[in-house]
Amino acid sequence: MVRRYRIHLIRHLPTLGNQERKYVGWTDEPIVVEGEMTEPLNPSVVQGSDLLRAKQTATLYFPKAEYVADARWRECNFGKFEGKTYAELEKVQEYRDWIGNPFLIAPVDGESLKAVEKRVLEAMAELSDEAVVVTHGGPMRVILTRFCPFPKEFWSWNIPHGVVYHLDWDSEQAFKEGKPCMSISAELQTENGIM
Fold it and tell me: Of the candidates 164, 140, 132, 144, which has an alpha carbon nearest to the alpha carbon of residue 35?
């Protein structure tokens, strides 16, 4: 029997900017809540974004694991939209253009989702079986949309802070060939355990 191949993706815990519903892409904010991993993951190595919020989340969830930071796991660079809310931007034409086609249009001084997808998929291709990655909502949506076994829109994924997504492939070969995974499951971490 061929052994399955599994990847675990975790969204970092929230920052003040996240709680205020601001675009917090490459802005390096700390987390404002603490949590504890209640799921039976016990990695010796955790990979993820080089931004503080991802590193702090990994330290809380996996205090004994080595953290390997990789900028390719960063959130989208929102450029001049960083630190602003939808309410502040909704009437700005550059913002409307970007929202209308975020894969091809980049915010001023930022990056398009196509650029995010390119770097995230490069990092994804290097993951080993049972890899644990602490990252951001944008990179997770890229991966979930790309590898979902059925069509699903980028913005339709619900990715709350602290959620753990598990992606399973039939085999390492299926993963390495970039085939859709056979299953996706999610578990939300809460202060009282898995929800």
Answer: 164
- Give the C-alpha separation, 58 to 102, whole Å: 29
Both tokens of 177, joined, read 């060939």
Of 29, 68, 24, which Cα lies nearest the Cα of 49? 68
Q: Distance (Å, rounded) from C-alpha 17 to C-alpha 155?
A: 20
**DSSP calls for 21-77:** TB--SS--PPBSS-----SS---SEEEE-SSHHHHHHHHHH-TTSEEEE-GGGPPP-
- For residue 190, is pLDDT > 90? no
Q: Which residues contact 17 (CB under 8 A, 6 or more apart)?
A: 23, 24, 27, 29, 83
User: What kind and span of H or E run contains 186?
Assistant: strand 183-190
**Pure H helices in the chain:** 16-19, 52-61, 86-89, 93-100, 113-125, 137-147, 172-176
pTM: 0.91
Place of tokens 């070969």: 173
What is the per-residue pLDDT across 116-154, written as a single tens digit (0 to 9) for each? 999 999 999 999 999 999 999 999 999 999 999 999 998
